[in-house]
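Message: A physicist's question: would you kindly supply an amino acid chain plus fold tokens?
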Amino acid sequence: MTCMEGPLPASPCRLAERGWPGRRPELAETRPRSRGNVSLHHEKMMTTILEAVQPVLASRDVEASITFYERLGFSETFRDQADGPRYAGVARDGVELHLQWHDETQWAASIDRPVYRFVVRDVDAPFAEFVETGGVGEDGSPGSPWGRPGDTPWGTREFHLRDPDGNGLHFYRDRG
């Protein structure tokens, strides 16, 4: 695996170098490799610049989700309607999340929810902030071994919590 330095402290390359359990060497030669914005499977240079990614989190109650994310320091940026919104956005520190209402019948299983990882400089600071604002209890988030800030075997310091709809939020940094 050829790794290039990137902006993320816990890049897949760094985790792979540490023997991260998700690494599968037998697939190394079958995966597309890239260097910067040039795919090694294609000789043509990609010219489109991806400026941001804005995950859309499913929500049973968009208004309640806005309130929850405000306790985490996010600010509402838009909503589709004043009362009973079905689509809204929240942002903090250059990170924008969209919240979209989904009918109860669209939820496959209560535990089948996506996880979003946020890179932070100091894992303990947002945890303390979220405790202070009521976003998480002093004992952390139940149901995860990383409900409170801790050092992981894969070389990060992190803590996990879930929003009211069960979407996972991981706040982490590389210990290296």
